[in-house]
Amino acid sequence: MSATDARPRTLIPSKDDDRGFGRQLPDLVRKRRTHYLADWFAPLLPDSRAVIFRTICYLFVIVDMHLIVRDPIPLSRHPELYRPLLLERMFSLPPPSLPLTIGLYLLVLIGSLVAAANRLPRVAGYLVAAGFTWWTAIGMSYGKVDHDHLALIVALWVLPTVGTIPQRWASRERSRQAGWALKCIQIAVVLTYFLSALTKVRSGGWSLTSWPESSILMWAIVRRPHGLGQFLAAYPELLHLMQWFAFAAELTSVVVLWLRGRALLVAALFWLSFHVFTAAVLYIHFAPTVICWLAFAPLERFGPWLRWVIAGWRKRTGRRPARHLVPVSRDQAVDGSG
Amino acid sequence: MIVKWSLTWRIAVAVLGIGLLLNGSLRMSDDVWPFGPLSQYAFSPPADATIVITRVEGRLADGRRIDLPLRVESAGISRAEIEARIPEITSDPSLLRTVVDGWTRRHSGAPEIQQVWLVQDETHLIDGRRGRTRLVELASWEVPR
User: Fold this and answer.
1) pTM, to two decimals
2) Which residues of chain A have a CB within 8 Å of the CB of B95?
3) For chain A, what is the total number of helices (H) and then of strands (E)?
4) Distance to chain A for B10, nearest Cα, Å
5) Which residues in chain A have Cβ-Cβ distances shorter than 8 Å to B13?
């Protein structure tokens, strides 16, 4: 644990901590404004939610490197096709070579394992953020730029700011640090849809009807012939209807940021089924965005829920719960310290 | 004060990030990734569009002409990357060496490739429906021995 990681979580308002946001400000109007902004951008959320999300997110990065952005190493054999993006030119990043991409792969792999264990969250987290951003940028520097990684890249850059959580997954604290990181990821998820709608309006000559009325789904199905898409290709009118539906959903997606409880659950399930559907029609999965939907979920309830399920299962099968360890007389610890 | 600062920079970063993303989608190109427009499938092909699928075919030493699937696992490079370089490849077909090398490395037992073609399956839409498909040859390159 680094020295900076060990600082107290001063953003948690508490009775005896008047440095937190719980303090009384003399100017009530200002206080209300500050609180509104603070509550929206950095709500008080359980640290354990951020910690569990971190574990899932870093493990997903490893999966991503093998299944999604899996081509930087083979692509680095073709320097003649490399066209660096602005990001790579701005930081004067060296052109990809085999040693470089293999090194980057190992760095992100090891960093992700450490960060997934919630060890060295800042050091490992920023290493993974920088390494994976570069890795993905390389994958997109050979002509094709994908847009399914926006939320994941944002997640990797904001998660380290939550810092060390001493009790990690079992933490019962809440903080604005955790709230801010999760909110940023939520915003990135929603913007993935909303901005794609904006881009559609822009590319259609600032018209709201040109994209939904176009032959884009037919175009996509011809290019990516897969099961359900092949069937739907016979019904162009139905494809137009689907385009209108998707466009309207994307344009109104920002509403999700203000939903709570059951309404939020319904919205999340809607978007997840949207991705299942596009995967069935076009074989496009958007898995990195789908994973980031978990930033909306009350992940901290998973542990207690799992314990409850296991207890119920033991009760039904008549098995006793695991007993606590009882010291045995003259028992000795393995390292001899007991 | 550190607490206030801590919240201030967090809100500022969030607002700046949203601003950069909006700017990217409204004004910029893919070059500014990750702050570029979310332009996948965001264009509007007309009802009489011509849809092309770019492929690479190869003639093997045993005389067969086969499709060399443009996927990372089979050729070390994917279709999108080849498509993005069509103008370069048509002016210098030897760039197809990338596919030949990638395929050969992954098919060590197969007969060697003697010639490759960059081709496209062109499908014409008629009134928004799928019409006929024809094969168009864009470039060919004989692999030097």
Assistant:
1) 0.84
2) 80-81
3) 14, 2
4) 7
5) 184
Cβ–Cβ contact B19 with A under 8 A: no
**In the predicted structure, residue B98 carries a pLDDT above the cut 80:** yes
pLDDT at position A33: 61
Beta-bridge partner residues of B137? B119
- How far from chain centre, in Å, is Cα A37? 23
CA–CA distance, A188 with A151 (Å, rounded to integer): 5
Measured between beta carbons, the chain B residues lying within 8 angstroms of A20 are: 3
Q: Where are the domains of chain B?
A: 2-32, 50-142
A with B: how many residue pairs have Cβ under 8 Å apart? 177
The verdict on a CB contact (< 8 Å) between A195 and B76 is: no
Q: Is the ipTM of this complex over 0.85?
A: no
Check if B95 contacts A (Cβ < 8 Å): yes
Residue A22: what pLDDT?
36
Distance, in Å, from the CA atom of A303 to the CA atom of A299, rounded to the nearest integer, reads 8
For residues B78 and A139, the answer to whether their CB atoms sit within 8 Å is no
SS3 A333: coil
pLDDT confidence of B3, banded at 50, 70, 90? confident
Span A3-58, pLDDT tens digits: 344 444 544 444 433 333 433 334 445 556 668 888 999 999 999 999 999 999 99
